[in-house]
C-alpha cells in the first residue's frame, strides 16, 4: 500500500540524477526544507582514462553539503517525511513505497507521454502544449494519481534545451507550491495514454523525403545529422520556407524536402566547428549532382 504525504513536511529525501534534476533540489534547500539524504545513480566511468564521474545531482548535493547515497533503501533510515523523485532513472521498489510517501515530478501532461523521453516526444510530435505534473509515485511507470499540473506552450522556435529549462523552472515552482499549500487528495490521470520511448540515434538522421516542418523539429531536438559526399554533416539550426526542390537537393542554402524547403542556418561539417550554412555552402562547392542524405 502506497503511503500518502503527511500534513506537515519538514524532512525531504531527494532522488534524481541528470542536470535537469538539479534546480528542484537547490530550490528545496533554499526554501529551508531539511534534506537528510540525496540518492542518485552510481558514478559513471567517463573519458579515456575511465575516471569516475559523479552525476550532476551528486555534484550539486555535495556542493550544498548534503549526504549522498547510491542505495534507495537508505532513505528508510532518515526519518524523512517525504521523498521527491525527479528523473532518478529507476523504478522504486514496493517495500520502499510502503514505508515512505513519495512524489514524482514528471515533465509531460500525463497520461500523454509516459516514459523515458517525454520532452523529446512532445517536441517531435509537434505538440503545441506540454507541461509538468506532480504525481504519486507508484511501482508502475508514470501511472500515479496527480497532485497538480502546469501547462507550457511549445513555441515555434523551442529547442529541446530551451523547453527542458522552461519545464524545470515551472516544475520547481509547482513542487514548492504544493508543498506550501498541502497535497490534498490526488486525482486520477484522464485521457489517452501515449508512451515516450527513448529517442534512438537513427531518429536524428534527417530523412529529406519527410516534410520540412517535421525535419525542423528533428533539428530542434539537437544533434540532427545528414550526409554529403559520404561524410556526416550536423545540422544545428534551420528555417522552414515554402518552395519546391527535390528531396535533398541543394540550391544555395536551401534544401528540398518532401513538402517545402529548409534553409540551412547553422551546420557543422565532420571534424570541423560550427559555421553558418552560407559559409559551409560557399566552401563545399556542391554541384548539381550532390544530394544531402545520399
Question: Your description of this structure?
Answer:
The chain has 294 residues and is of the alpha/beta class. 23% of the residues lie in helices and 26% in strands. It contains 7 helices and 17 strands. The chain has helices at 22-30, 56-63, 94-97, 118-124, 160-181, 212-221, 277-284, and strands at 12-16, 38-39, 44-46, 51-53, 68-69, 82-86, 102-106, 114-115, 129-136, 146-153, 195-196, 224-228, 231-241, 250-251, 254-256, 261-269, 275-276. It has a 7-stranded mixed β-sheet with strand order 5-2-1-6-7-9-10. Strands 12, 13, 14, 15, 16 and 17 form a 6-stranded antiparallel β-sheet that branches. A two-stranded antiparallel sheet has the order 3-4. A hairpin with a 4-residue loop joins strand 3 and strand 4. Helix 1 runs parallel beside helix 5. The longest helix has 22 residues, at 160-181.
How do the helices and strands follow one another from N- to C-terminus?
EHEEEHEEHEEHEEHEHEEEEEEH
Number of strands: 17
Count of helical regions: 7
Strands ordered across the widest β-sheet: 5-2-1-6-7-9-10
Global outline: elongated
What's the oligomerization state? single chain
Helix/sheet category: alpha/beta
Helix content: 10-25%
**How far do the termini sit from each other?**
56 Å
Strand content: 25-35%
Major beta sheet, specifics? Answer: 7 strands, mixed
Poorly predicted runs of 5 or more residues = none
What is the rounded Rg?
A: 22 Å
Nearest-integer average pLDDT: 95
Amino acid at each position: 500500500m502506497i503511503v500518502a504525504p503527511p500534513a506537515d513536511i519538514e524532512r525531504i529525501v531527494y532522488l534524481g540524477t541528470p542536470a535537469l534534476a538539479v534546480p528542484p533540489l537547490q530550490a528545496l534547500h533554499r526554501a529551508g526544507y531539511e534534506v537528510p539524504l540525496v540518492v542518485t545513480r552510481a558514478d559513471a566511468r567517463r573519458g579515456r582514462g575511465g575516471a569516475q564521474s559523479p552525476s550532476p545531482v551528486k555534484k550539486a548535493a555535495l556542493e550544498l553539503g548534503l549526504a549522498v547515497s547510491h542505495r534507495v533503501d537508505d532513505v528508510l533510515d532518515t526519518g524523512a517525511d517525504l521523498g521527491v523523485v525527479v528523473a532518478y532513472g529507476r523504478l522504486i521498489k514496493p517495500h520502499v513505497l510502503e514505508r515512505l510517501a513519495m512524489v514524482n515530478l514528471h515533465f509531460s501532461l500525463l497520461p500523454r507521454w509516459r516514459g523515458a523521453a517525454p520532452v523529446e516526444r512532445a517536441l517531435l510530435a509537434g505538440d503545441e502544449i506540454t507541461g509538468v505534473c506532480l504525481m504519486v509515485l507508484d511501482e508502475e511507470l508514470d501511472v500515479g494519481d496527480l497532485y497538480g499540473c502546469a501547462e507550457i506552450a511549445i513555441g515555434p522556435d523551442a529547442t529541446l534545451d530551451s523547453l527542458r529549462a522552461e519545464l524545470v523552472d515551472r516544475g520547481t515552482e509547482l513542487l514548492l507550491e504544493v508543498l506550501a499549500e498541502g497535497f490534498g487528495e490526488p486525482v486520477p490521470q484522464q485521457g489517452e495514454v501515449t508512451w515516450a520511448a527513448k529517442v534512438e540515434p537513427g531518429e536524428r538522421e534527417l530523412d529529406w523525403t519527410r516534410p520540412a516542418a517535421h525535419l525542423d523539429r528533428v533539428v530542434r531536438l539537437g544533434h540532427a545529422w545528414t550526409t554529403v559526399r559520404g561524410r556526416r554533416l550536423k545540422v544545428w539550426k534551420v528555417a522552414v520556407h515554402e518552395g519546391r526542390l527535390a528531396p535533398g537537393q541543394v540550391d544555395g542554402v536551401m534544401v528540398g524536402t518532401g513538402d517545402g524547403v529548409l534553409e540551412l542556418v547553422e551546420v557543422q561539417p565532420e571534424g570541423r566547428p560550427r559555421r553558418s550554412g552560407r559559409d559551409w555552402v560557399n566552401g563545399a562547392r556542391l554541384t548539381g549532382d550532390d544530394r544531402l542524405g545520399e
